[in-house]
Prior knowledge:
By secondary structure, chain A is an alpha+beta fold. Chain A has helices at 2-23, 54-60, 78-93, 111-131, 156-162; strands at residues 66-68, 99-104, 139-145, 164-169.
Amino acid sequence: MNKKLATVLLLASATMLAACAKKAPEQLPPPPVSSGGEQTPAPTTPMGPQVGSQEHFRNAVNGQTVIYFDLDRFNISSTSAATLQAQAQYFAQYPQLTFTIEGHADERGTREYNLALGERRANAAKNYLTSLGIAPNRIAVVSYGKERPVALGSDEQSWAQNRRAASVMIR
Amino acid sequence: MKRMIWLPLIALVPGTAAQAQDLGAPVGEGGRVERIQVAPTEATDGPLRGTVTDESDWSDIGIAIPAFATDRNRETPANAEGTGALGREIARVITANLRNNGLFKPVGPDSLPAPSFPQITSPAWTSWSGRSAEMLVHGYVQARNDGRLVVGCYLYDVSLQSELVREGWVVPPADWRRAAHKCSDVIFARLTGESPFFDSRIAYIAETGPKDARVKRLAIMDSDGANHRFLTLGSATALTPRFSPDYSKILYLSYVDGNPRIYVYDIGTGKQTLVTENRNPTIAPRWSPDGRSILYSMSVSGNTDIYTVPATGGASRRLTDAPGIDVGGSFSPDGSKIVFESDRSGSQQCYIMNADGSNQRRISFFGGRCATPEWSPRGDQIAFTRIAGDFNVAVMNTSGGGMRVLTKGWQDEAPTWAPNGRIIQFFRTERNSGRSGIWQVDLTGRNERRLPTPVDGSDPAWGPIRP
């Protein structure tokens, strides 16, 4: 119940922000207004991370820049959905930003299959963000297959960390 | 005025530079080796029977390979000490070729007396039969006045005291190893009845650096690891190379523009072009046996399918349309069929279709998964990566029957065939460290060896026998 309500609210706010963005003058970018709902530190502080930097994004979504997948799967879990909703809120707030979703696989698949699987995972994340109102032309997708692991062991824990789709800001 | 001229130039240059930014210097391909007639063996009174070899035990045949003789020691760019020392080197290369993969039991020039030049066509039979050598390889090397080398190669049956085969070649000094490989091929083919494979090259991915920052470069080498060259510089990840059937081009995947894309790299000119002008990622390139068309896999909105395109460019044709991942593909030697992998059934399995995409049907029904299938050049077998927890290299017949697992590593992946279809190459990855190496195994699974490479290696792909 609660979750559903939260999703609806998020969707609503995302849509509103997107709508605002359309009306905004082309001069760009409107200085971000620190709205009441946002818990992030004011991004306009000269000392803090710049809007559109990976650090700014990471702070805004409480570190949830990455979603994870089960072995050989590419569906968006409920945990991942919450992560992507937080990301969508950020991207709705800063409609001038574009970003890349990097799809990855663990080392237990063959190289070429994993390139295709990483592509599938990144597209699943993209489709979810699109369904939340983020314009598809703002989202680039790239697969690295099993070529860029973050966890280096050959064990379940490492593999779980490597089956991922990471959102990365384009500077 | 100046500005108007300069602006388009500036606009053009970055695009060109970006295309080529990871390429090293091009490496020409040697081309055809010139064959010549060599002097026949002097008549002996030995019995004139055919070969005594029996295919079941040719791996136990003892072969003596003493240094190749020279008529007179002359300077050659191929060896600082002249043609005499070069003759010993040639015999060493042949010995190593025949020893590797457990093909024979050769004894090399470093533990044998060196025959004189006249003895090459008139062996000292009694001294060789006393060494329990069943077969004897003799040869010579001569430097011609034009600098080119003449290499003669003779195979004798010691007990029959008869010549089994002889051949000769003229090579530029830089190609002296090719003469040694040609001689190895003559010996191998005569003793086994199999097609040759030593005079061939291997494209692969050279790997360096830690597991989370691996540098992957396109590299090529001879079948024995010699004449190694890096073709890319390593700033962009390169993967999955395939030599064209005439060795003039290599298909491979590069991230040089930030995305996985298949390029056609011309070895002679050092130029490369995209396999297809398209914004979607392209992976898993393969040549058709005649080199006229290229298979590749392309992801569109996350759905990967197999396509074909003429090697000279032009319109692509989609061969598969299943939702899910259809990837890779390998032609039958006659070009009429393609074996590929697909997860349309829920997990990676191997399928066969006609070359036009029709009649797609699954052939793998054993336990585990079937990935990276590669059709043997002989046509009767398909090698693949069997995933059942670990990865192993396995073979099956073209109906999916007769499955045999050939290797037992933790991750043995991506088999490709030697040009004669007797030896399979693959890469083995170590658990945890991620270190990788290139390995070869024969069809019996008994003879396995690591191919020496200067750094770690993966994705080995054998080219055909050279002309």
